[in-house]
Design a protein that fits this description.
It is built from 2 helices and 34 strands. By secondary structure, it is mainly beta.
């Protein structure tokens, strides 16, 4: 039997990436005719031969549609570094937007490589292993026929964890009043690295300091924050409450790029759920860099949210479904659904369980109910869904504060006579001028398994 040396076995066992050299195909002067560079990997070369503006067309620019490889989910920094010593002008292209409306036919510079960076004239963007696409354009400023090449580097990025956990519900991320005046921009991604529509901010509306503040509703899960200075871009338009709704965006989903070569810049931010507040010192270290942070939203251990009003289990009474994934009840007049969540612990001895309801009607009356079982199928009642089954125990009658928030506890177990091992199902009914006109709705439900 033939026995191979151990060194050969190791070589055969480890796949080696063969360098790809991408060669342009003319004409490639605009986005529809762009040359293709599919599945770029670390060590590949993107090449071309471009003629300056004095040359007859085609030839004044080389435009590539660059696609990254499918990879393990994560954050990856992709960089193209112009190695030609002449006056090549590399850039990433994007689209314009006006008042939050993206012009899909536009063709503009989003990030321009310059001689001021080290290394000179590089471009970079970030993806998530999802075969992201971007337009890479190389031009010459004057009559000159020259070959060029751009080596590819791909570097995994590990997000910085934000310590602690935050309660489901309303969470605010901001950069205001933290010792710097950087014109920041941010966007939040879900646990699968998808940009959440509307979860971004450049400038606080009617604030002259050009800093960021984003207040949104979060269900339990892990989220990733992308943070840099202006212009931080993905392919999504700016939300309505952003004071800057004309920033350029990228053509394709699943990637992020920053147009600014300024550094170092202080981009310290703060995140708060109203109970826990964490300040995260942060510094942009290099040109076009985006900083990544990971934060966790979780309720009380042993508690589970159920019966959301997002249409996933049963339609709301008059098509007033809330945003999928937020865990809220059916949508009310505030534009959100009432959200019930639990914090603290589920021990009957400590009896420190807290229940919090948000997105209620400010000042509106609210009833908290408890039951030992859920409805087998939720019922359409009022403007919402009744999720718990009789007999219902009325726990509390109170009014929400001016922000539409209300809390109950501690001391719930002794008040209701709960015992270890009980599985209690809770839901709040509240007054609201909902879209169906009945005058009341329900939050989502919360199930709590009590421990000693």
């Amino acid at each position: 039997m033939l026995r191979l040396p151990l060194t050969l076995l190791v070589v055969f066992a480890v796949p080696v990436h063969a360098q790809q050299v991408f060669v342009e195909v003319e004409p490639n002067e605009d986005k529809p005719s762009a040359s293709l560079a599919d599945c770029i990997s670390d060590g590949d070369l993107v090449t071309g031969w471009v003629c300056g503006s004095g040359c007859p067309p085609p030839g004044d620019r080389d435009l590539y549609r660059v696609t990254s490889c499918d990879d393990v989910p994560g954050i990856y920094r992709h960089r193209l570094e112009m190695s030609f010593s002449g006056p090549a002008l590399p850039r990433l292209l994007g689209r314009t937007q006006s008042n939050g409306v993206v012009d899909e036919l536009s063709d503009v510079t989003l990030q321009e490589g310059t001689n001021a960076t080290v290394p000179q004239r590089f471009n970079q963007w970030y993806g998530f292993g999802k075969q992201e696409e971007v337009y890479y354009d190389v031009g010459m400023p004057s009559f000159n026929r020259n070959p060029w090449q751009s080596p590819v580097t791909v570097t995994p990025v590990t997000p910085t964890p934000v310590p602690g956990t935050f309660l489901p519900g309303t969470i605010t991320i901001h950069t205001l009043g933290l010792g710097h005046g950087t014109n920041t921009e941010l966007w939040v991604y879900d646990g699968d690295y998808n940009a959440i529509p509307g979860y971004g901010n450049d400038d606080i509306i009617q604030n002259l300091q050009e800093q960021s503040r984003l207040t949104r509703t979060y269900g339990p899960g892990t989220y990733t924050l992308a943070l840099s200075d202006y212009n931080l871009a993905n392919n999504l338009a700016s939300p309505p409450e952003d004071d800057m709704r004309a920033g350029r965006v990228l053509d394709f989903p699943n990637l992020v790029a920053c147009s600014s070569a300024e550094f170092p810049l202080d981009v310290t931010f703060q995140i708060t759920d109203g109970n826990t507040t964490v300040t995260m010192p942060a510094m942009k270290p290099g040109p076009y860099d985006v900083l990544w942070f990971e934060f966790t939203v979780a309720g009380a251990p042993g508690s589970t949210s159920f019966c959301p009003g997002d249409g996933s289990q049963l339609p709301c009474p008059c098509a007033n479904e809330s945003v999928p994934g937020n865990g809220e009840g059916c949508r009310n007049a505030t534009g959100f659904g009432g959200l019930l969540l639990a914090s603290g612990t589920t021990g009957v001895t400590s009896d420190d369980l807290l229940l919090h309801a948000t997105h209620l009607t400010p000042g509106g009356t609210t009833l908290l109910f408890a039951s030992m079982q859920p409805q087998s199928t939720a019922l359409q009642v009022g403007d919402g869904l009744l999720c718990i089954a009789p007999p219902l125990v009325r726990m509390s009658f109170a009014a929400a504060d001016s922000t539409g928030t209300l809390s109950w506890g501690p001391g719930l177990a002794v008040t209701a006579g709960w015992a270890a091992g009980d599985i209690v199902h809770l839901q709040a009914a509240y007054r609201s001028t909902g879209p169906c006109g009945t005058g009341f709705l329900f939050t989502n439900g919360v199930a709590v398994t009590l421990t000693p």
